[in-house]
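ingest -> validate -> predict -> emit
validate: passed (alphabet ok, no gaps, 742 aa)
predict: started
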Amino acid sequence: MKARQILVGCDFGEDVADYDLELSQYFVETSSFLDVIHDRADLILGEKGSGKSAIFRHIAHSSDGIAPLRNVHVIPAFNTRGSVVFKNLSAHDNLPEEVLRTVWFTYLIALAVNHLANLYPKSGGRQISRLLKKYGLHSAQSDAQGIWAKIKRILEALNAQVEAEGELKFDPGSIPVSLGIRGKLSRLTGNGSEGGIDSILDACIAVLLETGTRCWIVFDRLDEAFYDNPDLEAVALRSLLRAHLDLASHQSPLKSKLFLRSEILERVTVGRGFVNATHLRRQYLKWDRPSIVALIARRIMARPDVADSLNLEYGLLRNQDGRLKVCGAVLPPRIDHQTLADWFENCTTDGRGALNPRNAITLLKQARAIQLEHYDRDDPEYVPGRPLIHWLPIRQGLQKLSVMRMEDTVLAERPDLRPLLRLMQAKPARMTRDQLSAILRPAAEKGASFEQALQSLLDSGLIASGANPNILTVPELYRHALKLTIHRSSGSELDVDEVSSMQVSADAACRRVLKCGITQYILDADDVQRHVISDHVRANYPELSATEHRVRSTGFRAVGVRSKEPTMTINGRLVLRTDDPAQFDDAEILTMEASVISAFEEATSRRASTFTPKLPLALRTQVNDWSSILRRKLGGSVGFVADLQDTGGRFRAQFAPDIPGVDISAQEKNVRNENAIQELKSYLEAACIEVINSGDVARIRPLGDASRSKAEEILSTFPVKVSTETTKRGHTVLRVSSEATN
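emit:
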């Protein structure tokens, strides 16, 4: 079967719950969801894309299949399509918070009672219908739009009275305004047996108790209602929260549930005071790595034909190991040397650090589309065990996600940040507060202080502040959208695409070191690129190290990717350098290395002065200047070093009685001078041990005065004698012998 055919069927579902008709098939029951359905929370908080709407849709459309909700009427207090009905509150922003509190409370009761009057016409339905009609709250259309139309008329009447009388007085315990049958505006005191909102609420509770049911009035999409009017948002949501607490105080089977963005709650309550805030039963939606894995695995298994093609059983979803196996059939188990879940956590979260299932699904959908484009060109067969989506489309999908979230989340909600983001473009991804202050100085000159700008960026998740508050970092999620550079050196910069290219080269080199047993692999790199490679290796390949140095024979800057624990322990090291790490495949490198090692070991065993590895002709012609590539890099036992020379198509390694020295003087200005000294010390220690054990003589060749001085200082700590000699080639060496031989 073709890989493309399988991937076409694996579409990962929709990333917006409102449009996902198959949500119930792969809904993930997190601990937050369980708290909601067991009525342990009323205020469900989360970031955008954290799954608030998904929970609402699941409990609203699948309540019959959820055991704790089988006797619960879930009534949406909002319209799921089109502009949010509450948005027209903007026409009544002159009403005080206390008035809106009673309006919201009236709306909650009207929603529940209209629903119950239609559902149970014989169980108290007549009484509540009569009350609704008396107060002008009865609606043939009992959904949110129909009931809000009644509330809208109340709001208009209140506005009219404010304009006519200049003030509004009413009893908070009553319905503020009633529109009689003839449209006459009147005030309801609520003191009579049927004169207030409490009488309607009591009738509603009686119906619920008689029928043995409960009723939840659920709010969502509140972030869409007042995003363009922060003052109204604060008043409207605070009054809604107070109405919610009013209803909760009755401890009845009728409750309201509010799904709200956590940052909006902070915005409307922090600094303004909110009495009884501790009475709000809150539940923060949080996702961890196992939950993200479960989300992806369920969406893969949602299509039986895809599961069959991949030879996956549904029972794999029962435990984490099985879910990882499902994910591994479609996605690479590791990306950038991180586990799949770790990579998603590091790359799809904003500066606030919360895992976001919407971002994960959006990225996968983008990666799938890119992979399908590749399959359209190549159309390969599916190979069991090989992921359907490769790592490169996933990285490219991250770039698309970065641009999307910048546009549809950050700038859509905070267009005022656009001038700041323009200033941050093509700047470092990691900076100090002073550096960011200098970058944003043009904005500060126009009126916005740096502290205000910084707080806006932090609140929007565009930057993160870690344990060190002086260091600020732009999260991976937004780096591509901002075209950020990773490092700057001597005025040079790398854009995101160049950085990605260097990381690909580093990945290729690291894979060769790990798979082929090569103990070191050197990549050509300029001053800026070497930092990118080193950081990438250190971050993603903990079993390897990256050392930066200048190659003396050619003068280029390089990065040596080295195994901390070499898998190949012969009498030395093999170092390869090439401008294109993809020049050889793994089999060619193994063939070449085996030939070199075999010849070297044979020569070492017979203490021959030369050896000739048998290299394939293709490798001889593809590698530029083998002499400079391998010179002084095939170290033998102590006292020997291989010098590989080009002899017209044949390659001969000649041993010289020297130990490779380390040029300390050439690295005096290098921050890694300590590493060079440590390397020299290890050479000298090995030489001294060999000399002491064998009674032989070793010759150390320092490459500068500083190296010689340092070598003599280190050698003085060992029980050996040191003198100076000049070799036939004219090199000055240190002659090391044991005290016994002299």
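The CA atoms of residues 612 and 651 lie 6 Å apart.
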